[in-house]
Amino acid sequence: MMRTPAGHKVYAMAAEYPSAAALYEAAKHVRDAGFGRWDVYSPFPIHGMDEAMGLGKSWLSGWVLFGGVSGLLTAALVNVHGKPWNFFTVPAFFPIMFELTVLFGAFASFFAMLGMNGLPRWYHPMFNWERFSRVTNDGFFLAIEARDPRFTESGVRELLEKSGGQHITIVHED
Fold first, then answer.
1. 84 pLDDT band (50/70/90 cuts)?
2. Is the pLDDT of residue 121 over 90?
3. Rounded CA gap, 91 and 85, in Å?
4. Integer angstrom CA distances of residue 98 from 64, 70, 86, 101
5. In this predicted model, what pLDDT tens digit does every residue of 4-30 receive, in sequence order?
6. Which of 147, 140, 131, 129 shows the shortest CA–CA distance to 163?
7. 143 or 80, which is more confident
């Protein structure tokens, strides 16, 4: 575990980039360098950034499928108002089957999204960097986390400098 000279635990080394295009190119450099724990921050979505970061397909759709199937099975197993269950009465169950499929799928997507994003997180270490407040307006940032196995202070600083990063700094956790 790395610590700053003041004794703070190091979260990441971060750099600011002048534009979305520069951040996109920097993401490709970091991906090609083999880092696994890093992220980019920008005031708007950047087309193609997922590919530049080497991110694969999200598992969120699997959780939504699980929720939908659970809702459908729940509706199929619940005998609403004591209706008889045979071939001729199945259409009476379609509305509740549809509604519970959608409801359970929506709940599954909401809670899975929260879990996959590590939310709720009341405070992120990147907020400790004064320049980071520009991310909501016109700032483009890239941070490589210190817990990445390939992280070394000199190696990451050199990579961020080569990729065009400016205002390179260590971001502390507390």
1. confident
2. no
3. 10
4. 14, 12, 18, 5
5. 777 889 999 999 999 999 999 999 999
6. 140
7. 143
How far apart CA 69 and CA 61 sit, in angstroms, is 12
Tokens of 94: 């379609």
Task: Please name the residues in contact with 145: beta carbons below 8 A apart, sequence gap of 6 or more.
Answer: 11, 12, 37, 38, 39, 151
What integer pLDDT is reported at residue 80 of this predicted model?
62
> Is the pLDDT confidence value at 105 over 70?
yes
Q: State how far the Cα of 39 lies from the Cα of 146, in Å rounded to an integer.
A: 12
Q: Are 172 and 10 in contact (CB under 8 A)?
A: yes
Q: Are 13 and 154 in contact (CB under 8 A)?
A: no
* Cα 154 to Cα 157, 159, 170, distances in angstroms: 5, 9, 11
| The two structure tokens encoding residue 74 | 């729940």
How far apart, in whole angstroms, are the C-alpha atoms of residue 144 and residue 35?
A: 8
Locate 63 and state its tokens.
Answer: 């959780």
CA angle at 172 for the pair 168 and 174, rounded to the nearest 5° = 155
pTM for the structure as a whole: 0.80
